[in-house]
Specification:
Length: 255
Amino acid sequence: MTTEQSTSGNGSAGRRPMIEAEHLSKYYGFFAAVRDVSFKVYEGEVVAFLGPNGAGKSTTMKMLTGYLNPTSGVARIAGHNMATDRIAGSRHLGYLPENGPLYPDMTPMSLLEFFAEARGMSRERTRERIEAVVDLCDLGSVLHKPISKLSKGFRQRVGMAQALLHEPDVLILDEPTAGLDPNQIREVRRTMRRLGEEKTILLSTHILQEVQAMASRVILIHEGELVYDGPVAELSKNGEDLDAAFARLTVGQPA
């Protein structure tokens, strides 16, 4: 499949690459889940990572975060090779997997305190950061309720707060609005717009409205291969909408 790429307008000049995929591949036997994918996300960018179900998005994100070793290629976070230097790289990284695991018997407060201790944060630092992420993710009203009793929207916010607790430079978010109602989606988008003012964000989604609402650039993969990397505005051709552009690049339908 032909790859459509455009580096114009991504504003990367002079900025540090914070997320790097360098010829990443992941094979399971003869099956290629991801095949020779390369891209960079620069400091301060909010980039949408798109693809149909089964395209290799989650596999790529797991390699970028160090949860999965690539068959070949290199994943870097803030310059750290995530296969060989994961601990150093993870200090810069906040990761929210789809349906991220939470401990249902804990409250948001006890969960955040647990993760702060696991990261070796001081008592003073823990207090400061919990206060900051509770405010950012608007968790004050549920801070002492069991996570099992929270709505999916609030659970997503708890997961986001945990990912932000150590004040990372980089966020990798896998389907952060999946299964949420419109009001919850609006709240998550609001939070992410605030985060995008100071963080580097790679946002995996299959909801095209998310792209227009939050990202300036799109990386699109299909059947494990990169098929587009460029500005949102250049993804469409001849006045087509994003749905038509997505179909053209993933199933070969004309605009």
